[in-house]
Amino acid sequence: MKFGRKIHLLSHQKTVHAGHKDYACDKCNKKFGQKSNLLYHQMKIHEGRKDYTCDICKKKFVSKSDLMIHQRTIEGHKRYACDMCDKKFGHKSHLFTHQRTVHEGRKDYACGKCEKKFGVQRNLIVHQRTVHEGRKDYACGKCEKNFGVQRNLIVHQRTVHECRKDYACDKCERNCGGDGARPSNTASLRKSERERERERDKERGGRKITRNTEKRIEALHTEPLRVQ
């Protein structure tokens, strides 16, 4: 490798080849060769800061470089393709993480308080903070609810306070506020379908339908099979 400045060369030799990691995080056991990497780690993992916002989709990021990578990917610049599946990534590190966790099934980050393991360190930190420490650092500004994960706060605000229902069922006109709402919709529809069929069964003089027929009836939004 070549560098434009001598200080960058010395830093590279010290951290990569000599293995020096002089900057330790005071909140976990991780060490870093450069102070900038330590600060990035603390902002991203422990403080949850995201000071850079995409003006296209409003997604937030820890650093300007992360924002630039994101903007390249949403513009269609995904240069790093996985050779094991069809997924592509805008950053090489994202490709490596994908291959390590999805295709190799590696979970290198183990929780010291339970038996759970994680493929990404960020997920381990969130697990420890929310499950073992019971922290709920994300407070809703419109009610008194608190959440351990920022994503859950966003879903709460969108569905409860903004009354948004962005997920439309392609079988009927019913809309749901989030991914978690759709299964309950499906379950209630299946239940009502079974109840209606039982009523029709009674009207036919109590003739019992077979289990295979009932399974077909339980399929969401299909016409009930009528027994002649």
TrEMBL record:
Keyword Repeat: yes
GO biological process: positive regulation of reciprocal meiotic recombination; regulation of gene expression
Domain of life assignment: Eukaryota
InterPro entries per the UniProt record, alphabetical: Zinc_finger, Znf_C2H2_sf, Znf_C2H2_type
GO MF annotations, alphabetized: histone H3K36 methyltransferase activity; histone H3K4 methyltransferase activity; recombination hotspot binding; zinc ion binding
Residue numbers spanned by region Disordered: 178-228
Pfam annotation, one family: zf-C2H2
Record domain C2H2-type: where: 23-51, 52-79, 80-108, 109-137, 138-166
Keywords carried by this UniProt record: Metal-binding, Repeat, Zinc, Zinc-finger
Biased composition (Basic and acidic residues): 190-228
GO cellular component, one term: nucleus
Name of the protein: C2H2-type domain-containing protein
Organism, scientific name: Trichogramma brassicae
